[in-house]
Amino acid sequence: MKSLLRFLFILCGLSIFASSTFPASPQPPKPKPAKENPKQPVTREMMKEALEEVLQKAKEEKIEPQTLSFVVSALDGPFMIGFLTKQLNEDIESGKVKNRQAALGEIDVYIGETLRRARAKANLLKSVTYASAVTKAMLIYAEEHNGLLPPADKWGSVSTQNLQTPRLLFSPQLPISDELRKELRDFKTNDPNRWELGCHYALNKAVAGKSLKEQGARVLIFESDLGWNGSGGLADAKKFMAKHKLTAIAVGFTDGTARQLTLKELKSLKW
C-alpha cells in the first residue's frame, strides 16, 4: 500500500513538472462572426418583410396615415415594393442612408421622409408650371401695350386677366395655398376680389414698365410672399427661401421660359 501511494505521489509531481515546463499549445482563436455590411443591397424580400412589420407596428403605435396607406398599397403589388427597394438602395449608395438595418427597422420613418421628398419635388415642378403661366400672362400684356412690361405697383391687377384662374397665383410649395384654394370656392367666378386673395409670385422690380425687347433673358417673376402686386429682387427671393426652408424656387424669364433654381443659381442671374 505504501508503495502504491509513493508511486502516485511521484506521478503527480511529474505531471505538475511537465505542465509547468512544457505549457499546453494554445488553442486556435475562434473565428469572429462576419460583420454585416451596412451598405449591402436591400432585397425585395427584406423590404416586404419590413413593410409587413409596419402593419404589425400600426396595431400598437400611431403611424402617419399617408405612410400607412403607402405600405398597404405596396404590399398589394410588386411594383411599389420594387420601387421602394430601388430607392432605398440608391440612398444607401449615395450615403443618404448610412445603415441598411437601421432603415429597414424604421421603414415607416423612411417611407414618410421619402414621400415628403417626392411631394416637395412635385410641388416645385407644379410651381414652375404656375410661374410659366404667370410669365406668359405678363408677356401678353406687353404685346398689348407697345412692348412694355406692366408697372411694379399694379402688375397683378393688369395682367391677371390673361390667367385662367387665381389658383395659378398660389404656390404649391406653401402649405397656406391649400387654405387659399378652399377660400376661393366662396367667391363667385365674376368677383374681381378673388384675384387678390393671395399671390406667391412677384415682379422683378428692375424690369417693371420697361421695354420687353431690351431685357433679353432676364428675371421677370419669382416665387415670393410679397403679396398682391408685390415686386422686389434677389434679396426678397433669398428671404423667401430662408423663411420657408426651400431648396429651390420657380423663376420666370423675359424670354418666356420658367425654371426651378437654387439659391446659388439665383445669385448668378441677371436681375
Chain-wise SSE layout:
Elements: H1 2-21, H2 44-57, H3 65-76, H4 78-94, H5 100-105, H6 107-144, H7 155-159, H8 176-184, E1 201-204, E2 219-223, E3 231-232, H9 234-244, E4 248-253, E5 258-262, H10 263-267
Parallel strand pairs: 1-3
Antiparallel strand pairs: 1-2, 2-4, 4-5
Describe this structure in words.
This protein is of the alpha+beta class. The protein folds into 2 domains: 44-105, no CATH class; 122-267, no CATH class. Helix content is 51%, strand content 8%. It has 10 helices and 5 strands; from the N terminus they run H-H-H-H-H-H-H-H-E-E-E-H-E-E-H. It has helices at residues 2-21, 44-57, 65-76, 78-94, 100-105, 107-144, 155-159, 176-184, 234-244, 263-267, and strands at residues 201-204, 219-223, 231-232, 248-253, 258-262. Strands 3-1-2-4-5 form a 5-stranded mixed β-sheet, sandwiched between helices. Strand 4 and strand 5 (258-262) form a beta hairpin. Helix 2 (44-57) crosses helix 3. It starts with a helix and ends with a helix.
Strand order of the largest sheet: 3-1-2-4-5
* Helix/strand order, N-terminal first: HHHHHHHHEEEHEEH
Radius of gyration: 34 Å
Helix/strand class: alpha+beta
What count of helical segments does DSSP give? 10
Globally, the shape reads: elongated
For the termini, the CA-CA separation is 114 Å
Secondary structure tally: strands: 5
Percent of residues in beta strands? 5-15%
Question: What's the average pLDDT?
Answer: 83
Low-confidence stretches: 7-22, 31-36
Domain count: the total is: 2
- Helix percent reads 40-55%
Largest sheet, strands/sense/barrel: 5 strands, mixed
